[in-house]
Amino acid sequence: MYIERVPNRNSPPAVLLRESYREGNIVRKRTLANLSKLPDTVIENLKVVLKGGTTIENLSESFSIVRSLPHGHIAATLGTLKIAYYVEWHMRKALAPLLFDDEKVVEESEPNNNVVTSQKRSKKAKAKAARKKTSEKFTVHSFRTLMEDLATIAKNKIQSNCCEASLSFEKITQPTHLQQKALDLLGVSLICTQ
Known about the structure:
Blueprint: E1 2-6, E2 14-23, E3 26-34, H1 40-50, H2 73-95, H3 123-131, H4 143-150, E4 155-160, E5 167-172, H5 177-186
Keywords: Plasmid
Organism: Gloeothece citriformis (strain PCC 7424) (Cyanothece sp. (strain PCC 7424))
Protein name: Transposase
């Protein structure tokens, strides 16, 4: 998704939330929402967020989802975004010891009405970024690269046809030390307990 300004002949440019999709060999654009009535600061902050910038802690105050006609797809898109940023914010908080982010975010004394706030980094976070290692000697990651690393964990289906009997079972890839640390911080187990 991205935000695009589209010129209008006799009026200000339209600000649209769009996504690209492929139809055969042709790339097409689909408009998800018209953001023209939002203030410029909110639009600029949304651009930062869509490019993977600082996450929004309290998205519910930033958007109000109302019924959209004819099918409610705009409300569904914004609702999905709201849930995704909420989950990402909690994951970043839990995974902070492995990320370039501050482990303990200190609230600023004066309130900031900006949707996306830029936090001042602590000395500990700057030192971690300079060393590129955590106190436990793990390589420090961005949120995206850590998610890409965790995505390499797979469930393999193993089949054997020896001894005239068909044997089949599933095995999950053994996580690396970094992956196991991330799973522990998130409180996630690879073993299904249901």
